[in-house]
Amino acid sequence: QLSEHCCFSLLSRRISNSQFHSYVRGSSVGNISIVDVSPCPSQPCVLHKGQTYKVNVTFTSKAASQTSKAVVHGVLAKLPIPFPIPNNDGCKSGIVCPIKKDQKYNYINALPVKSDYPSIKLLVQWELKDDAGQDFFCWKIPVRISD
Ligand SMILES: *[C@@H]1O[C@H](CO)[C@@H](O)[C@H](O)[C@H]1NC(C)=O
Ligand SMILES: *[C@@H]1O[C@H](CO)[C@@H](O)[C@H](O)[C@H]1NC(C)=O
User: Fold this and answer.
1) Does the CB atom of residue 67 touch ligand 1 within 6 A?
2) What 3-state DSSP class applies to 4?
3) Where does this protein chiefly localize (predicted)?
4) Nearest to 61, CA basis, from 139, 137, 147
5) What pTM did the predictor assign?
6) Closest Cα partner for 45 from 96, 100, 113, 115?
7) How far is the CA of 58 from the centre of ligand 2 (A)?
8) How close is the Cα of 56 to the center of ligand 2, in Å?
């Protein structure tokens, strides 16, 4: 289930080479402080085929949860397409579960860009959901897939 409404674009507030500072919106059960996609020296992030990019999201939970599950989409002309990641279990991505309320976490994962992906521009949208399917975080960034 895609929750487009909760998602915000990280276009505007870049705080360093790869880090984006974001703000909360919607009824998510978390609060993002930093989204770090690297390497991404300029915007949109150019993702080279065959390479793997590091994702590090710093967020604070606003609810407890036993589980956490990542849902990643490529959004092309507003059409969300599932974007496969090797491990969608947030509890195996730098987060010690169960997730406690009001605790700061670093979600660490990788975004592999397969060599058979088309060379297109799109948005990558990344959500992390709690037991109830609510978003701990939801962000999207513009990327360009390139050779
Ligand atoms: C989210 O985090 C920001 C910055 O850390 C803070 O100012 C804000 O109050 C937080 N919002 C909620 C709803 O916790
Ligand atoms: C993730 O980002 C946070 C905040 O910038 C940083 O303190 C932490 O060391 C990073 N973790 C990894 C594994 O890169």
Assistant:
1) no
2) helix
3) secreted
4) 137
5) 0.85
6) 113
7) 8
8) 6
Q: If you take atom 2 of ligand 2, which residue's CA is the nearest one?
A: 56
- pLDDT of 77 reads 83
The CA distance from 77 to 143, in Å, is: 13
Cβ–Cβ < 8 Å for 136, 30: yes
Higher pLDDT, 24 or 112: 112
Residue 79, C-beta contacts closer than 8 angstroms, at least 6 positions apart: none
Cα 3 to Cα 67: distance, rounded to the nearest angstrom: 19
Pairing mode of beta strands 104-112, 30-38: unpaired
72-96 per-position pLDDT tens digit: 999 888 788 999 899 999 999 999 9
Pocket of ligand 2 contains residue 58 by CB under 6 Å:
yes
Q: Among all chains, which residue has been given the structure tokens 């360009």?
A: 144
From CA 138, how far away is CA 38, in angstroms rounded?
18
pLDDT at 9: 52
**pLDDT interval class at 2 (50, 70, 90):** very low
Sheet with 52-61, strands from edge to edge, namely 19-21, 30-38, 52-61, 104-112
